[in-house]
Sequence to fold (374 residues):
Amino acid sequence: MDSARERIRKASRLVVKVGSSSLTTPQGMIDVDRVDALVDVLGARRKSGTQIVLVSSGAIAAGLGPLGLAARPRDLATQQAAASVGQGVLVARYTSSFARYGLRVGQVLLTADDMMRRSHHVNAERTLARLLELGIVPVVNENDTVATDEIRFGDNDRLAALVAHLTRADALVLLSDVDALYDDDPRRPGARRLTEVRGPSDLLGVELGKGGAVGTGGMITKVQAAKIATGAGVPVVLTAAAHAAQALAGTDVGTYFHPEGRHPGTRLLWLAHATTGRGRLHLDSGAVEAVVNRRKSLLPAGVTAVEGDFAAGDPVDLCEPRGQVVARGLVNFDAGEIPELLGRSTRELATALGPEYERELIHRDDIVILESHH
Ligand SMILES: Nc1ncnc2c1ncn2[C@@H]1O[C@H](COP(=O)(O)OP(=O)(O)O)[C@@H](O)[C@H]1O
Ligand SMILES: N[C@@H](CCC(=O)OP(=O)(O)O)C(=O)O
Fold:
């Protein structure tokens, strides 16, 4: 056996993500046989001592049938209503399916916001750790009913990567309806399977297409998820749900993404990968140098313009003078407060406006430099 794959076979904590298309029928009902087949694999592995976190999509898809909808609705409110109905059905099914192995599940619903706000992510981390200690299988999904369009993950691939990091998992297994990453859309003739990915250069020229009718992200979000996880030191296997047993046994199925071994903080991981800014701050070249190369906080003196309507605490993109986004950060002021601060020193602002204006626009701990600018 490939020694890299050994990491999956020997993992003592695994995050397994399964997509909608592997759990539901085209009619929008739970596919009981496929759920049971997946639980057979996970239940057996749990019984052998491995802790398992299951990140399961399928709430929206499983809500379609009960609501009499023929296809995934386009509008967010109906998707959220379907998720609300479907999530209950889904968890009920997992509860009875895992009970066949004497195992209990615990529902955990997270938003992208929870990954960012320190108090929330500390709580999520603690609850997941406790569930695992208690021998429970946490079943995680995005909290679809409260997540708004701009901020939601939409697919669970990136959420699963962040959960793998949050729980310090030994590996992430992404299960879909396709058995591997291919160099082209596998529905096209001649597409070839990638058995492993060692880094970005292995992905050059790979065509990443959209998914089927029930899934959302297609391969693009799965590859993004793999980059997030491997960048945080967690290896990833991507394969079909039907090959779950082989993947967990470390057999050569699907695509193996080798880990890179850096461990950035979870909150910043979210900031870099799971969102786009709510607005933009344009930096002069001195501020770019300070923030990107010297990892300093961003002060109002180095900002030339502000765009967008954001509130204090929101993520904003930081642009260099030609307009290219180089970093992202959690801003300390509302958009409307910023214009009068621009170009002025913090000391001058404190004297003119009061001591609360002495703070930086964005604290260095709340800034991530985007990948190509490291
Ligand atoms: N290069 C590629 N390699 C593999 N699959 C691809 C590729 N490009 C597009 N796809 C499609 O992506 C789909 C999986 O994405 P999706 O439907 O979102 O799955 P899930 O619901 O499991 O998250 C596959 O069915 C496949 O047809
Ligand atoms: N949270 C959503 C996930 C949406 C979705 O389809 O995701 P995926 O199948 O992983 O591409 C749900 O449960 O329906």
Q: What stands out?
A: The first strand starts at residue 13 and ends at 18.
